[in-house]
């Protein structure tokens, strides 16, 4: 099973682009609500306008965050796997749990935790800072990995890496 990392990266960027569009629309709506004449405070207890302004500010920060995530993902240059480097940022990893259930992970920069469907497979995109990613970084196929997930010790075998 071979995956094209650049295609997966393009899918992540496309998903982030769609998320950016939704966030931008939410920011516009929040700004319009915050500045609408009907939301001007009529007395000191009328906080609808203030609440809308806080929401607009939060939405604007979210837009900036997504834009930064897109830039970071565009800068990612996935490399072919090397036993010397082991699993690294941009690696596609296949793990098997104790029940022989396989999980495909695409390890990338922050800001794009999502599930992709590509070529009939489900690939979980996770940040290199996620606990499961941290446990695999630098490892090579055949390595046993034990990690505490959700208060429960779980074991995996690293089957292959691309």
UniProtKB/TrEMBL annotation:
A GO molecular-function descriptor: translation elongation factor activity
Matching InterPro entries: GreA/GreB_C_sf, Tscrpt_elong_fac_GreA/B_fam
Superkingdom as given in the UniProt entry: Bacteria
Gene3D superfamilies, A to Z: Transcription elongation factor, GreA/GreB, C-terminal domain
GO biological process, one term: regulation of DNA-templated transcription elongation
Keywords: Elongation factor, Protein biosynthesis
Full protein name: Transcription elongation factor GreAB
